[in-house]
């Protein structure tokens, strides 16, 4: 495959897809733990390289820091509606679920300025399409299956979760369903992939959450498959369906997964059946238009002017805010503009006062 020419502003987060497939299979490298780059005031903006996607879109330097929190995932609440899993900041919080997201953020008392926006995934998807990076791909007649993520704050109600998944998938494979497994880098670091490899499944990955190439690698990966499937509704299902890849829900009759602790809305009582019925046509596949709607893609093409205005307003709010971000938390402070004025006043006053002594 000829080497694509990727514009300079995209090279920080778009990986050349002529070498992607080989990298997807290098689990040792993709399972390495990475630290945040440290550019962002809100650390979660760096998940999956989301900040770099936005900065390139609005022509900001990649080393600068955004002045708003970008939500990074989609989950389903116990009412069967979309629930924003975004960072609640004291200054600006974007939500890509539009009215649904705004409502849930108000209910949960997420502080800050709350405005609708598109998920950066849609921005990246459009950019890669414009660059013809997804054209003429060899589509594998294989189903890529996404098990649920094993995270630090997640309790697997059944300790043999992966063994249960493997036994179900092995039975399906016997019925001529060719299946491969996708796991994030953290799960590979924790050696979850071994259960699937020992059961005879090929495992691929998009890497670590702090890998800036995660989403471009994800797009290159899933767009190479005939279809994808999951038994847990999460962000990955919306991403794949938005790409136009046939996205299936497989009810494997497995135990539910629920958060141990969370400051967000309690998610562990929702009905999987109701959500599947709502999102998946006849419990089969997730339509592209519904996936895009949940990712905030109601306005196409996506407006650079809108995103630039969001950032400009956020900068002004940052200057005049009585709250200041500290990591992912906040503290009361004197607004920066007022602080500078006070410093200037004090500097002028000290020489004047000393002349009176």
Provide an overview of this structure:
This protein has 357 residues and is of the alpha/beta class. The protein has a domain at 18-33 and 137-294: 3-Layer(aba) Sandwich (Rossmann fold), CATH 3.40.50. Helices cover 36% and strands 15% of the residues. It is built from 14 helices and 13 strands. The protein has helices at 20-24, 27-30, 50-57, 98-107, 120-130, 161-173, 185-189, 193-198, 214-222, 235-242, 272-279, 288-294, 304-320, 336-354; strands at residues 74-76, 82-84, 92-95, 113-116, 140-146, 154-156, 179-182, 202-204, 225-230, 246-249, 257-259, 323-326, 329-332. The strands form 5 sheets. A 5-stranded parallel sheet has the order 8-7-5-9-10. A two-stranded antiparallel sheet has the order 1-2. It starts with 19 loop residues before the first helix and ends with a helix.
> What strand line-up does the widest sheet have?
8-7-5-9-10
Q: Note the total helix count.
A: 14
- CATH class value of the domain at 18-33 and 137-294: Alpha Beta
- What is the helical fraction, as a range of percent? 25-40%
User: Terminal Cα separation, in Å?
Assistant: 80 Å
Q: What general form does the structure show?
A: elongated
Q: What is the typical, i.e. mean, pLDDT?
A: 75
Q: Flag low-confidence runs.
A: 77-112, 259-270
Oligomer: single chain
Radius of gyration: 23 Å
């Amino acid at each position: 495959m000829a080497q694509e020419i990727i514009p300079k502003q995209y090279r920080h987060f778009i990986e050349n897809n002529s070498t992607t497939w080989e990298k997807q299979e290098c689990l040792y490298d993709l399972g390495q733990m990475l630290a945040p780059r440290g550019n962002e005031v809100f650390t979660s903006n760096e998940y999956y390289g989301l900040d770099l996607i936005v900065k390139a879109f609005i022509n900001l330097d990649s080393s600068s820091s955004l002045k708003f929190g970008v939500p990074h995932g989609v989950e389903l609440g116990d009412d069967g509606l979309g629930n924003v899993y975004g960072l609640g900041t004291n200054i600006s919080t974007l939500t890509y679920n539009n009215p649904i997201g705004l409502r849930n953020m108000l209910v949960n008392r997420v502080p800050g300025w709350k405005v609708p926006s598109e998920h950066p995934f849609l921005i990246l998807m459009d950019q890669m399409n414009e660059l013809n990076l997804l054209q003429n791909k060899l589509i594998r007649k294989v189903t890529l299956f996404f098990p649920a993520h094993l995270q630090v704050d997640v309790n697997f109600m059944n300790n043999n979760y992966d063994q249960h998944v493997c036994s179900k998938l092995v039975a399906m494979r016997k019925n001529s369903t060719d299946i491969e497994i996708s796991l994030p880098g953290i799960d590979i670091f924790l050696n979850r992939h071994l259960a699937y490899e020992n059961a005879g499944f090929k495992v691929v990955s998009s890497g670590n959450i702090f890998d800036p190439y995660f989403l471009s690698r994800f797009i290159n990966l899933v767009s190479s498959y005939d279809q994808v499937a999951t038994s847990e509704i999460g962000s990955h299902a919306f991403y794949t369906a938005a790409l136009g890849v046939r996205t299936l829900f497989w009810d494997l009759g497995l135990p539910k997964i629920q958060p141990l602790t969370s400051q967000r809305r309690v998610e562990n009582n929702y009905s999987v059946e109701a959500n599947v019925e709502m999102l998946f046509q006849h419990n089969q596949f997730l339509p592209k238009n519904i996936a895009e709607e949940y990712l905030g893609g109601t306005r196409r093409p996506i407006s650079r002017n809108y995103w630039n205005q969001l950032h400009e307003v956020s900068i002004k709010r940052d200057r005049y805010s009585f709250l200041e971000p500290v990591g992912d938390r906040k503290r009361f402070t004197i607004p920066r503009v007022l602080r500078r004025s006070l410093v200037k006043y004090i500097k002028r006053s000290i020489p004047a006062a000393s002349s009176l002594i």
